[in-house]
């Protein structure tokens, strides 16, 4: 058979960068960004065109401030910075009901 394995992209790359800044005796400020690239993949074993999900890049960002001499940290984040719409699950019911059931990944959130 000449089919690709379902949910198995050819490429999946992940990266993270983080920089911390000491603010004298006032604590630590940090900036962090991570990203994940997933190449195209099929969301079903039939490899039907309606089950092909194109490649996408998800990026997230986080800033934080850690108080000195304590474990207390205040942070803010944004996940899915680009508000990318991507499917994580699909079920082809077109032969029976004429549609494809899709479940999408999480949208931008903070």
Molecular structure report:
- This protein has strands at 12-22, 28-38, 41-42, 52-53, 56-66, 73-78, 87-92, 100-104.
- With 110 residues, it is mostly beta strands.
- A four-stranded antiparallel beta sheet has the order 1-2-5-6, with no helix packed on it.
- The model has no long low-confidence stretch (mean pLDDT 95).
Q: Kindly state the mean pLDDT as a whole number?
A: 95
Oligomeric state as shown: single chain
Order of helices and strands: EEEEEEEE
As a percent range, the share of strand residues is: over 45%
Radius of gyration: 20 Å
Structural class: mainly beta
* Sheet having the most strands: 4 strands, antiparallel
Task: Return residue spans where pLDDT drops below 50 for at least 5 consecutive residues.
Answer: none
Strand order of the largest sheet: 1-2-5-6
Helix content: under 10%
Individual helix count: 0
DSSP strand tally:
8
Large-scale geometry: elongated
Distance between the amino and carboxyl termini: 44 Å
């Amino acid at each position: 058979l000449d089919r690709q394995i379902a949910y198995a992209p050819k490429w999946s790359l992940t990266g993270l960068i983080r920089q911390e800044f000491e603010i004298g005796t006032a604590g630590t400020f940090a900036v962090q960004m991570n990203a994940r690239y997933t190449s195209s993949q099929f969301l079903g074993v039939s490899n039907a065109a309606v089950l092909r999900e194109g490649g996408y890049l998800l990026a997230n960002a986080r800033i934080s401030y850690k108080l000195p001499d304590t474990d207390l940290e205040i942070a803010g984040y944004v996940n899915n910075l680009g508000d990318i719409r991507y499917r994580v699950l699909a079920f082809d019911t077109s032969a029976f009901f004429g549609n494809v059931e899709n479940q999408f990944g999480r949208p931008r959130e903070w």
